[in-house]
Amino acid sequence: MTTSFNFADALLDWFDHHGRKNLPWQQNPTPYHVWLSEIMLQQTQVATVIDYYNRFIHRFPDVQPLAKAKQDDVLAYWSGLGYYARARNLHKTAQIVSEEYTGRFPKTLEELINLPGIGRSTAGAILTLGYHQKYPILDGNVKRVLTRFFAISGWPGNKKVEDNLWQKAESLLPDKRIANYIQAQMDLGATLCTRSKPDCPDCPLQSHCLAYNTASPTDYPEKKPKKTIPTRTCYWLVCQNGDELFLEQRPSAGIWGGLWSFPERQEKEELIAYCERTFHFSVDNIEQLPELTHVFSHFKLTIRPLLITSRPKGVTDKSVGNWYKIDDIMQLGLPAPVRSFLHTLQ
Ligand code: SF4
Fold first, then answer.
1. Which cofactor does it need (predicted)?
2. Which of 48, 252, 256, 299 is the most exposed place for a label (fewest CB within 10 A)?
């Protein structure tokens, strides 16, 4: 592909004039420095990372002191960066590198990706920036540049799309100046091919960029598709007697386990039969109230409340349900939609 050669050359030329060269981890890019900066940058902006990185390096200048440190100490130096699993993995990896690799980061992709918290892209960064080996990386910046340059549709988190991106990233690698090239990719994505305002007129890839020439760059990369979740329906029987309402306690297992709610069934007839049989309600003059919707992580529940105001015929067994004054109900453990329904009822 002729584009690949041009792509790398254009990028390197741009990097020589506009690339970032003063970031603290670029000053002495040992594998340790590259690794630490990559982990810090995974969820955090460069501007925030710089101070944390400098403090961390001052306290843990290399793998060995980090490996020997107490986890609490490592977490204290991470405090404020968030995503603390990164710090715990950092500590574990330092201990493995210290014990199994005599304090030097391994030089193969296979060994690196076996270390806690190191994925293929971070391993690629260590191998290229730290050891000058020829490997691709695919962090968020590179994904954005490549999906735009090749107008690759689909969400990059999708396995097929991601595989395609890795192939493209690999095919574009130059034979020389690999560290500069990788840094250039990161820099272009971070400073020019930005998420919402790419500066295409100043971009060295503009003439071959498919998104720029045929579509709208900000259409790429595509967003994660929203999951469509199923909808379920249920009926509540809201039995009102003066200023009291009837509630039953839900079984301890299942949704809203142990909370107080209106008698509920999936089918209206089933619910009425249940309430007549169990609570001796005389169910007539049913008024259908407006529907409610409650969204769980895995489904959406449409609730159809049925209001009856007739008195119960017989004595209710208090172990299965009870009458409560509306104000007292608010003191009970209630599912969120019951609580909001009561507010509207009031
Ligand atoms: S031309 Fe625009 S969209 Fe294409 S790579 Fe450059 S900045 Fe990104």
1. [4Fe-4S] cluster
2. 252
